[in-house]
Amino acid sequence: MLAAVLGLLYFSAAKLGSLTLMAEGVAIIWLPNGILLGFLLRFPARTPALLAAAFAAELAADLPAFGVMEAVAFALINIGEVMMARALLYRWKFRDDFPGIADLFKFLLVAPGFSALVAAACGAAVYTVFRGGQTSYLEFLRVWWFGDGLGLILATPLVLAIGREPAVAGVTRADLLVCAAGLLSVVLLGFTDEGQFAGVYVGPIVLMPFVVYAATKFRMAVATGVVTIAAVIVVTLTALGRNPFGHRTVSGAVVHAQEFLSVMGIVSVGLVAGMNQLRRARDQVERANAALEMRVLERTQELEHALAQVRALSGLLPICAWCKKLRDDDNYWLSLEDYISQETDATLTHGICPQCAAKMSPADAAPGDHDPR
Questions:
Q1: 312 Cβ partners below 8 Å, 6+ apart?
Q2: Contact in structure between 36 and 56 (CB atoms under 8 Å)
Q3: What is the C-alpha radius of gyration for the chain, rounded to an integer number of angstroms?
Q4: Which has more pLDDT, 323 or 230?
């Protein structure tokens, strides 16, 4: 069942990636690899079944547009990229819940940084051999690298977060107003042509405040979901020739779309990781404060108990001038031993001081009672 879900998501994402402006068919954004990496990190025991499903989905998505050898090569390259990223992340002890900025750096360097670059170098070689034309090898490499990297930045954190975080709760009126403003911005962006609306430039940058709001207010699933929606909107407008970044060549439009969406994705995931780190630090401080308060309470109780013992023998004590008995609060006269035992926790033992021992005759002293000091 899990493999079937992955296969369906992989195939759908591959079809979405077919939206492109390049004549050779290189995608502006490629989400399938990010989806596969998220599944492999979450379900490592199901690796063989997941890889088989991804391979089949890749072939099904590519064969209508590419030859068999090309489709197989692309599938092997994409799967190799994901397996390389997972192996390096495991070796680097990457934590997939993004608890802090350090894990974000590990992910960015390993997945969209290194693994996507290696795959892009191989993929560009395949493109050059089979479909070389007006696009150079380096241009193939750059578009593939940014497309795969962007898909990893968006899809992998989203897959890792879904179902592992608490559901969104406590939506405020401000959240609803921000959501409504975001929808209006999307509609406005849809009416632009070459980034112009009524003679005023209105580019995809209008989506950035809502992405930042979602990243600082909510968790990873919501934040990356918002960025993914924004990416789909920008890619769709670019693919339809609306040039949301202004009048540019085809290659320039692809470059600006990938760069903008990469920055948006990194900002979003980075803000979530930073907020997670702040929450962890706050929780640690709260736990430390609670432990300190408990320790202070325990010490206070100990001091109060000790003070109560001191007070038991404080003040004026009525004592008989002849027999040396002490009078308690109930007007009973008690021997010194009985009074101390009753009013304190002390335990009395008996012995003979040197002065008394000297006054006693040897016949009166019991064995062991004489203190030779």
A1: 343, 344
A2: no
A3: 38
A4: 230
87 Cα distance to chain centroid: 20
What pLDDT sits at residue 370? 46
Euclidean distance between CA atoms 370 and 359, whole angstroms: 11
Least-confidence region, from 19-23, 28-32, 152-156, 222-226: 19-23
Contact assessment for residue 62 and residue 15, using Cβ atoms and an 8 Å cutoff: no
Average pLDDT over residues 241-247: 81
pLDDT, tens digit, for every residue of 85-97?
A: 999 999 999 998 8
Backbone angles phi, psi at 114, to 5 degrees: -85, -55
**161/357 Cα distance (integer angstroms):** 84
Contact 85, 107 (CB under 8 A): no
CB 107 within 8 A of CB 159: no
- CB environment 101-129: b (16+ within 10 A), e (fewer): eebbebbbebbbbebbbebbebbbbbbbe
pLDDT of residue 122: 94
Q: What is the percent of the chain where pLDDT is above 70?
A: 88
- Helix/strand/coil (H, E, C) string of 237-302? HHHCCCCCCCCCCHHHHHHHHHHHHHHHHHHHHHHHHHHHHHHHHHHHHHHHHHHHHHHHHHHHHH
Rounded to whole angstroms, the Cα distance separating 64 from 299 reads: 76
Supply the pTM of this predicted model. Answer: 0.74
Amino acid (1-letter code) at residue 31: L
CA distances to 314, 328, 360, 370 from 364, rounded to whole Å, are 37, 33, 6, 10
Q: pLDDT band for 244, please (50, 70, 90 cuts).
A: confident
For residue 175, the one-letter residue type is D
Listed residue (354, 109, 120, 139) closest to 255, CA to CA: 139
How far is Cα 28 from Cα 145, in angstroms, rounded to an integer?
10
Cβ burial of 321 (10 Å; 0-12, 13-18, 19+) is: exposed
Q: Which residues pair with 200 in a beta bridge?
A: 197
